[in-house]
Amino acid sequence: MTELWLPLLVAVGGSAGSVCRYAIGRLFAYRGKAAPYGTLTVNLSGAALLGLLYGMAWNVNQPAWLLLLGTGFLGGYTTFSTLMAQLAAMRETRESRLAAVYFLTTLGGGLLLTACGFFAGLWLN
């Protein structure tokens, strides 16, 4: 595959990932406000899927599907900026304990699920 198509793969994957993130966020929306559960679900599932992809691609030299799905789709699907905005909003409303639990769950769960996904990918490979 020529190098000129690689950015297009990332763009197509990123567009699809963003739409999926929006749809999951809408599933968790209530009374016009987005609950952090949508962002948590997206970020944790994205971490697991990214680990799985990299585990499956461990001995492969940068396949195009890794750019499409990993960099593109999961890059558009997961969202660090929304996590930070939600944490800031919780801080402003004095929900510091909830913010701490949310942050630690996202960080710890993300690391754990990435590792689990990675080893599952190695096993599947």
TrEMBL record:
Membrane topology value: Multi-pass membrane protein
GO MF, any single term: metal ion binding
InterPro entries: FluC
Pfam families associated with the record: CRCB
Sites where the protein binds Na(+): 75, 78
Transmembrane segments: 6-24, 36-58, 64-89, 101-124
Protein name: Fluoride-specific ion channel FluC
Ways its activity is controlled: Na(+) is not transported, but it plays an essential structural role and its presence is essential for fluoride channel function.
Entry keyword set: Cell membrane, Ion channel, Ion transport, Membrane, Metal-binding, Sodium, Transmembrane, Transmembrane helix, Transport
GO terms for cellular component: plasma membrane
Predominant location: membrane
Catalysed transformations (reactions): fluoride(in) = fluoride(out)
GO BP term (any one): cellular detoxification of fluoride
Organism: Paenibacillus darwinianus
Family listed: Belongs to the fluoride channel Fluc/FEX (TC 1.A.43) family.
Compartment list: Cell membrane
